[in-house]
Automatic annotation (TrEMBL):
It comes from the Bacteria. The lineage of its organism: Bacteria, Bacillati, Actinomycetota, Actinomycetes, Streptosporangiales. It comes from Actinocorallia longicatena. Belongs to the enoyl-CoA hydratase/isomerase family. SUPFAM superfamilies: ClpP/crotonase. It holds the Pfam family ECH_1. This is Enoyl-CoA hydratase.
Amino acid sequence: MTILYEVKDKIATITLNRPEVANAQNAALLDALDEAWTKAARDEDVAVIVLRAEGKHFSSGHDLKSGGWPAPEQITLEWIYREETRRYLEYTLRWRNTPKPSIAAVQGKCIAGGLMLCWPCDLIIASEDAQFSDPVVHMGIGGVEYHGHTWELGPRKAKEILFTGRPITADEAEKVGMVNRVVPRERLDTETRELAEQIAKMPSFGLRQAKRAVNQTLDVQGFYAAIQSVFDVHETGHGNALSVGGYPILVNLDEMKSKIK
């Protein structure tokens, strides 16, 4: 199973379960994740949603070799746009707007598409070994599909990680406000659970109103419109890749990620 799901004491725990490939996201994982998220959102016995991952790394991003892509000669921009709109934009916005608090527990590498799993969560707890990166400029693309970079990191730090492709540490992420807490790796699940239990004791209506207030404030500032418009900019990167000889760069990025141990 690509996703594990458990509810205990008003907390739904959703676990990414492809540790053998550093929790790379294929179509099956993303579809199952959305189903689990929707189930938790509808369950009246769930007050808080926790997203975590099995293994050494939170997520190495999109699985570009076995993720459900057709053969390179069959890929069209229309197909890419349709599939990425559904799985990379509609899913993430739905998770972000779920009217229940959510917490991501992140360890190890969180690369490119991995960001679109933790960023929609309301809170992020990172282990001391966590690293966050978006190296897709190497592919001729300006950033992962859920382009929360500016909001999460601030404009200059966002440009730095995009321009260089380098990862930022958990401590750096905490300093700019992207991460709420940094904890020892062996305490990640415990600290996340304790925070979820604390939140779950709060009145559910108050939590929903507080989340809605913060999210709406961001939307008034342009978050929602920016995510939508920058997604279209992202798709022009795919169009450029197709125009210069197909999609061999998909394999190149996977080769780069394959060095992750």
